[in-house]
Amino acid sequence: xxxxxxxxxxxxxxxxxxxxxxxxxxxxxxxxxxxxxxxxxxxxxxxxxxxxxxxxxxxxxxxxxxxxxxxxxxxxxxxxxxxxxxxxxxxxxxxxxxxxxxxxxxxxxxxxxxxxxxxxxxxxxxxxxxxxxxxxxxxxxxxxxxxxxxxxxxxxxxxxxxxxxxxxxxxxxxxxxxxxxxxxxxxxxxxxxxxxxxxxxxxxxxxxxxxxxxxxxxxxxxxxxxxxxxxxxxxxxxxxxxxxxxxxxxxxxxxx
Length: 256
What we know:
Helix content is about 35%, strand content about 15%. It has nine helices and eight strands. The longest helix has 17 residues, at about 190-210. The radius of gyration is 18 Å and the shape is globular.
């Protein structure tokens, strides 16, 4: 499971995104961008951040370290901004912390990654159905001249339907991916030569680690999935089904 830390001070909100993440200091002397459980997008966004971010790390992308950050109710009492105070009050408990990269800046194309690295980012987004990596919102940072992938909460959209429809791996497996607006589409190498190797890595980490990193309390039971183990199994089956159907989701000309 993710390493746990305790929040000791809320520093400032980051108002670029709709979910109002904030910079928080923790008891391990680290500083984190915290995605809050009480934000309107809910816990499933935190789950997607962990699963997709850790898959990205496993295939060789730079992804900031993540921690499970416990937020105490007392921190909210000292926040003057009512909107932030309400968010902190609704987020008492376990939240997601992403390592803060001081001095990083948003990707603008002036320092592109290598074609192979760009292809890995595009592959990850196509595989996890992450539509939120466009020029309007690149969700890439440049830090010390290197590209870092962030903000994967929009991926794995299928889990939002679980309370009503239940798990349907075949439906996710058959969902195409439109790469035409992807921020790295014109930088990336052909994905076909990379696919089998990346898929093998993902199969391995789905079996021995990635899903276990998600805290149990973020995995909300449904009638069909009554406990965290059943929910992890549903994620695993959906992702494996998609791996087995690359001709549908890999960008045009890249499918094996």
